[in-house]
Amino acid sequence: MAEREASGLQVLLHTLQSSCDRESVLTILRVLADLLSVGTDRRIHYLISKGGSEALLRTLVDTARTDPPDYEVLLPLFRLLAKVGLRDKTIGQKALELEALDVTLILARKSLSHSQRLLHCLWALRVFAARVTTGAMLGINGAMELLLKVIPPYTHRHSRTIRAATEVLAMLLRSKSNSRRAVNQGYVTSLLRLHQDWHSHDAAAACVPIRRGLLLCLRNVTTIRSGREAFLAAGGMELLFSHAQDDDLETDVDKLTAKPGLDRPEEELLQYEAMCPELSCGFEELESQSGGDLNSGCANHQHIPAAASPKPLRVGQDQGSQERAGEDTIQASLLRMVKTAGARSRPATTLHPAGRANGLGTASPGNESPGIQAPLEEDARGLGAVSCPRLSAFLCTAARCGDTAAELEELLKSRPTHVAFHDPHLFMAKAKRTRSVVDFEMLAFPDLWGHRPPPSAQSMLERKCGIQRIKILEDIRRLIQPSDVLNKVVFSLDEPGLLQDTDSNSLRFFSKFESGNLRKAIQVRECEYDLLINADLSSSQHQQWFYFQVSGMRAATQYRFSIVNCEKPNSQFNYGMQPTLYSMKEALLGRPSWVRAGSEVCYYRNHYVRHVAGAGGARGRCYYTLTFSITFPHGEDVCYVAYHYPYTYTALMTHLDLLERSVDRRQVYFRREVLCHTLGGNPCPLVTITAMPASNSPDHLEQFRHRPYQVITARVHPGESNASWVMKGALEFLVSGAPAARLLREAFIFKIIPMLNPDGVVSGNHRCSLSGEDLNRQWLSPTAQRQPTVYHAKGLLLYLSSIGRRPVVFCDFHGHSQKKNVFLYGCSIKETLWQAACTVGTAHLSEDVSYRILPKILAKLAPAFTMSSCSFLVEKSRASTARVVVWREMGVSRSYTMESSYCGCNQGPYQGLQFGTSELEEMGAMFCLGLLILEFKSTSCHHQLLARAAAVLNTEDGALDFHLQRCSTGSSTAELEDEPPCAEEVEYSVGSGADPDASFAELDRQIQACAFDADEGAQAEQEDAEWRRKGIP
């Protein structure tokens, strides 16, 4: 059979070369095109092995020498040559020997006024020029001069042809002789002018491939010394630097200053009036409450700064001088109070006493909650009586069948959790109401039992020298020594019937719970597992967040886990960050904590190629591997491993219920309502916090209703769970009895949306909603049907703006995977134009520069915050984010995104430490304190508020030397560059850094798409006729 197939192909190729019948040649070309358009590359390589390249080249030469050349034969012939030539590494040499090189160059010169013919010639020249020696021969024959005629200044026409010309020229300039010829002919200056012209006119970024081709030409010509000298002499460095600065910056002043119209009918905004009852409520039930204890019933929390012991104010002080000193005194007292609290809660740099690798160990008795330490010995003796796998299985049954959970109730009585603002019973009740498109089968024990922060923060993991290369070599060893590789699937969502053997030595995995994400687990060796995580629902991208259960481990055994389908090209896992771990046995021993765990942590590119749809349409992109080793603290435990500290939607709803119960209704106005329902049917909560009016007198009600608004949102990206922990700290602080919190409530009305993407959080997504969209790219024109939470959040902000009550500050809490510390992104017209080196004058532009005050305050106030990472540039790619839309459309000059690192700090008091939940919650409280100091610094700060602040804080003259402008210099430490290249980074690319496989794959796609129907052919002929009349553009 194989011989008959071979003889059949050889007959076709022989007939193609020898036939003089035009129809026969066209038929053979169509047959070959059909054969090579399906299947794998093996068909093309088989064709090459049977002399297919030579047959096509000879046919090209013979057809081109007819007078006139028959382009109905030449065009499909060129397409086949380009397709085959991509896989034939010697195609250039063959073309040179068979004179096809000169023939193609002659045809290209004759086709300058025919765009389609020229395009096909350029495709062939590109594959010929893949061999440097062939490229040098083309340069000698004048190919570069020809190509520079084809590449015009910016034009809308013939973009495919121009792109092909730039790519061929870049291939030619890989030859040093061609580069020297280009320098001598002055082509470097011409290339810079062309790039400048295309860059300046391509505002819509529609011609990026052409600009990239020109940059590749410049890069290749500067590989020789004379090329670098010519590049510098022509001002290339300055030109490209300016391009790099403004490539994504919005430099259109009209767009920066214009305020877009409403994206909905104005009357539709009236529905949000019901979400602001504080503006119209009469509080008829209130009576004067003078002399009451404002702290009564208010919640407190361990990271909230406590006030000093009360001291009476001195009576008889001159009122004028008291007012003049008021602002500085208030700020100083707040700062001193915060510093004192920060010193008390500052984490130690030591790890836990035991388990240095995974951070687990016995906590200090002094740090245990009341009622926990006493029964620890008894619990330790009787822990074997409580089977963690059995309890885990019970949680599955309870979640699915709604049992009374008597066993769990008994366990809670014998081992109370003592976790602040957490109630397992309430959590179970809330979990039954959480809706998910994913069929959950259990409650995750950490979410049910709760989390109490460890007594100290954990240091960043020190990277062992050479560890990344060791891990990569271990992966390679699988291919060359497959005998010890098991490749046993032990867990898979794709195989529901797959049973995990409880008697085998394999670990058992599970992820079908809220926020869980693990798709498949493959046992590679006895203690090594490859893991695959899900892409976001309704999407083929964003594999980063993971959260799964693992059980069946042996004590004192190191296990290696490799998540092999991560997407991001780099991660803080390479710079000291560790995953998080929760042990059920540790929790039952009184230490219910998520801790950083794992040793030998590496993040690197692997050889698995991403699907085109999953790579955003790009070809040749690879996945990345996160690998780490864990030694579990107990045998036969049930543990949970996660990307970061999980914070689920059910946990939020439980937390809000407990917060609402904790407040003193006489003093704290706490209102929780539903902003809207998500696509999955979950209510999106909206929280309003302020102080109750002192009475229902007109003056008190007037002051209550005219308090300015502050709007805070979080968790638009589900995988950024650190944003929820920051929000948790802010919420607990705002309802607390701390003096600063009372002042904040009396000064502002807080509108808070703590979770903008509940469905994504429930589903275990990393970035998207149920519709597969990044909700933080939908603020320009959201719809109630596809993005209900963003639509109604924006509607509420538009309503507040329409009644003259736009917020003083808008801030959206996020998490950042590439940088350390906490920092803000804001918006500034002038800084954007200056950074872009825009020629438009900025002197006539007026801008409120107060957007910089809050980050400066936070840099002096919060140990984790750094000013040096803050940015106030408005990028084109961020035009549809909450920060930019609220700034541009609502006119909120202090519109921010606050980014918290997944990792930790490289500056200030927390330098070298990973963030725990305590530090993240503290940041939430510090942000609120920053809002209060911002108000004290504002010119509109009311004297009554200053007087009230003096009364609450019991300030005195001696505090003036703590003025905010001269306060702590601890956070002024210069930030390290984030991040330097990994010392062990492995370069996978070949040649000069380009990816030829991806490049050729793109050319292959273009050739495949070049099947013109009659209409497109007619349009091409019209364009060619116009070119012939007008000449080259």
Please describe the structure with a list of short key phrases separated by commas or semicolons.
1033 residues, alpha+beta, Leucine-rich Repeat Variant, Immunoglobulin-like, Aminopeptidase, seven-stranded mixed β-sheet, six-stranded mixed β-sheet, 18 strands, disordered C terminus
Q: Which second-level CATH architecture of one domain applies?
A: 3-Layer(aba) Sandwich
Which percent bin holds the helix content? Answer: 40-55%
Q: How would you classify the quaternary structure?
A: single chain
Quantity of strands, as a count:
18
How is the largest sheet built, in terms of strand order?
Answer: 12-13-15-14-16-18-17
Structural class from helices and strands?
A: alpha+beta
Q: Largest sheet at a glance?
A: 7 strands, mixed
Q: Residue-averaged pLDDT, rounded?
A: 81
Query: So, the CATH homologous superfamily of one domain?
Result: Zn peptidases
Q: Give the overall silhouette.
A: globular
What does this entry look like structurally?
It is a single chain. This protein has 1033 residues and is of the alpha+beta class. Among the domains are: 8-246, Leucine-rich Repeat Variant (Alpha Horseshoe), CATH 1.25.10.10; 458-642, Immunoglobulin-like (Sandwich), CATH 2.60.40.3120; 663-950, Aminopeptidase, CATH 3.40.630.10. Helix content is 42%, strand content 11%. It has a seven-stranded mixed sheet, with helices on both faces. Strands 1-3-4-6-10-9 form a six-stranded mixed sheet, covered by helices on one side. A hairpin with a 5-residue loop joins strand 12 and strand 13. Helix 2 (22-37) packs parallel to helix 5 (71-85), helix 4 (52-64) crosses helix 7 and helix 28 (721-734) crosses helix 35 (917-937). The longest helix has 27 residues, at 319-345. The radius of gyration is 34 Å and the shape is globular. The chain starts with a helix and ends with a helix. The model is unreliable at 287-325, 338-386, 397-404, 955-977, 988-998, 1011-1021 and 1026-1033 (pLDDT under 50).
